[in-house]
Amino acid sequence: MYAGFWKRFAANLIDSMILNIVIVALFFIYFIIMYTVIGTYQLSEVYSEGTFSEMFAAGAGTETTALAVWVILMLLFLFVFPFIVYWLYYAFMESSKHRATVGKMALGIVVVNNSLERLTFGRATGRCLGRVVTNFTFYIGYIMAAFTERNQALHDLIASTYVVNKEHLEYENKRAEYDGGQYAGGYGDGREN
């Protein structure tokens, strides 16, 4: 029923490649736009004047201001924008009708809540934020999926979510219909949620 560690690992690898390609492409577009807006002449003139500290100490000349804006926007883009892309990708995909990211769809696994239902956008966001916490454990939180009873990683435990094989989920749904809608739901072994 629950997706194994290696299946989840492969799905995560696919998703990481997709996200990296998107972020690098957007970064490239951003760099071209910013370079065009500020102007190659201004940036080359400011850069040739000296170090960054000397430029900022010299005051807020037009070129220095342009470079400062460029640097601030670059830092925001490097640190904030990738997280926004990451969050929207995971939260929208895992709360969609597919219940899975592209990588999970490719491996035939889906993310569900305790009742084997689709996640809300809020819970999918919580799961995404839980992934940030999992990353801070030096990826030990991901490895937990290989050893926990229901193959839950740390972010699954935080958000009360499960990654299950899509085939099994479809079987549970058919079983619920067969039981006349009387199926209790949950883990598929008779336990309450």
From TrEMBL:
Transmembrane segments: 17-38, 67-89
Topology with respect to the bilayer: Multi-pass membrane protein
Subcellular location: Cell membrane
RDD domain location: 2-159
Keywords: Cell membrane, Membrane, Transmembrane, Transmembrane helix
Entry keyword annotation includes Membrane: yes
Entry protein name: RDD domain-containing protein
